[in-house]
Sequence to fold (307 residues):
Amino acid sequence: MIRYEWRTDLDAADAAQLREVLLRAAAYDAEPEYNSIDPADVERDLAPGSGVRHLVIWLEARPRTLDGPDEPERVAGVVRLVDRGDGRADGTIVIDPDLRSIGIVTLLLEREGVDASGPDGWLGSGFAGIRSWARGNHPASGRIGDRNLLPRTRRVWKLVRPSVEVAAGDADRVVDLGSDDAAAIEELLASRVGHDRPALDAEDRSVVGVRGEAGLSGLVEIDLRPVYVEEFGRCASAALLAYSPSLTDAECRAVLTDLLVGAGARAAQSGLDGLIAYVSSDDDALVAVSRRVGLQHDRTDVLYEIR
Fold:
């Protein structure tokens, strides 16, 4: 019913089919915010030596009617594995929306299993472990995870603080940060090696912070490009949220409160309907503050692992 191969190239017909599947799936999955793969990334990384593996899946030819011609073979989807540099990979799966009821991923895992302990890793990919986010906690991911005993190792909540929660004076709980604060920002983020730094001069970004006696205690980078969230409207996003590791627990919660409330007020001042924040479910301080300042749940992302 299906066939699949690790590919480093595709003929023109298959490449066009895969591109069309990925574009159509991205449009179909935009509202629930399920996983997507940019066709341009596949085209760029398909060549050998890129550090990225692509398992292309085809639905084999099948009858359409009892006495009519078979439906020709077609590209059904792709598994994309990006090397993390530690023998493991970050994985993303996208299946043609028209074929999801068939259970393509279930068929694949029934045949190949999830054992990655061999010398060649999972399905000869070379990776001894794979982790994959189920964005929006896709309903099929839970069934597949349970069936194959895949551990859920992280949960991240997409939360929204609606602008109707903003009160007078909230915007003053944070201060604007600019190029003069670059050294203080770098000191605050010194432990976040390899992480992005806030865009201090971008027109569609605003970087605000909270200062304490010892200097900059925390910051949030607000992406002011509107993201539509059902039930809330057009929202800004907290693209980066950080606080000093030297803060006590009480100080940390106070700083986080000021950051989230202040950032929400700045979003409202820009004419937006809310502020989006992504919160790891095991970050006790941030979870407690989010609950207290009125952030509301919109989506859950779940990380599954093959290991």
User: Anything to note?
Assistant: Residues 2-150 form a domain with the Aminopeptidase fold (CATH 3.40.630.30).
